Predict the 3D structure of the following.
Amino acid sequence: MGIISTIEASCRDCYKCVRSCLVKAIKITDGHAEVVEDRCIADGHCVLVCPQQAKKVADGIGLVRSFFLAKQKIAVSLAPSFVALEEFSAPGQLATALRKLGFTYVAETAEAAELIAQEHLQLVEKHAMRPVITSCCPVVVNLIERYYPKLIK
Ligand code: SF4
Ligand code: SF4
């Protein structure tokens, strides 16, 4: 199952999601709207327009639990927006809580963004490649990989 799917029991076949999907990634199967995984760019548009809340977004919690059960090392990349989640008494509070829960490595996504920005600059300067797109948004990456593969290079 992909990131976005339909809860069949909740779907009332209004087809609003079908009409709203910009990349035509929803088909009708047995009267229900079904997300076509390899066409979906996971922008979540259909989730917003569905009047029945019949679209489900995978949350990955089960996957993380399975990593813990398998005693695997888990790294957390915290988006800068995490500060809006709660009223923290100190900036490092969430990172400390995650480490206490058993996550091996916790860092802000901004640390990786800095490295990527340096690589981006090198690509542009050394190889005269233009334009070069850098985005942490998976929708942008999905869109290019699935619909504009000529741009991947
Ligand atoms: S918008 Fe919601 S209720 Fe309407 S067809 Fe799509 S999933 Fe079903
Ligand atoms: S998440 Fe976006 S691309 Fe995927 S089915 Fe919904 S509207 Fe279409």
Notes: The mean pLDDT is 91.
